[in-house]
Amino acid sequence: MQPFTTLRGPAAPFLAINVDTDRIIPARHLKTIRRTGLGAALFESLRYDEEGRERPDFVLNQPKYRNAKILIAGENFGCGSSREHAPWALLDFGIRCVIAPSFADIFYNNAFKNGMLLITLPKEQVELLAKEAETAADPTFEIDLEAQEIRRPTGNAPIRFDIDPFKKHCLLNGLDDIGLTMERVDKIAAFEARRRVEMPWLEPARG
Question: What is the pLDDT of residues 173-183, one digit of tens each?
């Protein structure tokens, strides 16, 4: 997993509340187990009309947000089913950080396990950031995970955010569940060696 240290890029304001995972990536796209290719279907019903043409009023179709790396979202983002394809679609589009007043628990954990940074801030601060992203000619923000700061295009004081220390460690070091296991491979090997000596009856029979 790619480490997350500092992220710099456009932030797209999308303050709709209760955006569920089916809105993020429709169920018909869940047949694949590949993590690539899903970005084209991100927010499909919002981005495209019935003929597959872009809706010009949707935020990610607007020129200054087409390459958004940060999404400024509304309350309860990622509710609904637990599909891991939702963070996959956001990542494949290029969005690696979502800022919102609240997130659905399963989506929150799935996102971190896939290398995304989710930042929870008070609603007033989220609305302020969304307004700055909307009015700035260049809506480029910088997210510094080590410093736990959001640097704004206005040049005003950075906004600090809290994050669980364990999740921060995993993101900074690019550790998913497999990576965390591999950090302990020596201890696992030592345990298995001790078990073979102390509990030989657990060893498989050899014919």
Answer: 988 766 666 66
158 has a pLDDT exceeding 90: yes
Q: Helical H runs in the chain?
A: 21-24, 44-47, 85-93, 105-113, 123-135, 165-173, 177-182, 185-198
Judge contact between 83 and 30, C-beta under 8 A.
Answer: yes
User: Exposed/middle/buried for 24, CB within 10 Å: 0-12, 13-18, 19+?
Assistant: buried
Closest by alpha carbon to 149, among 91, 94, 97, 107? 97
Token pair listed for 88: 């996959």
pLDDT value of position 2:
87
Which burial class, exposed, middle or buried, applies to 134 when counting CB atoms under 10 A from its CB (0-12, 13-18, 19+)?
A: middle
Which pLDDT score is estimated for 178?
Answer: 64
Residue 28 neighbours by CB under 8 Å, 6+ apart:
none
In order of their start, the domains of the chain are 6-202 (3.20.19.10)
| pLDDT for the residue numbered 188 | 74
Residue at 85: amino acid letter: H
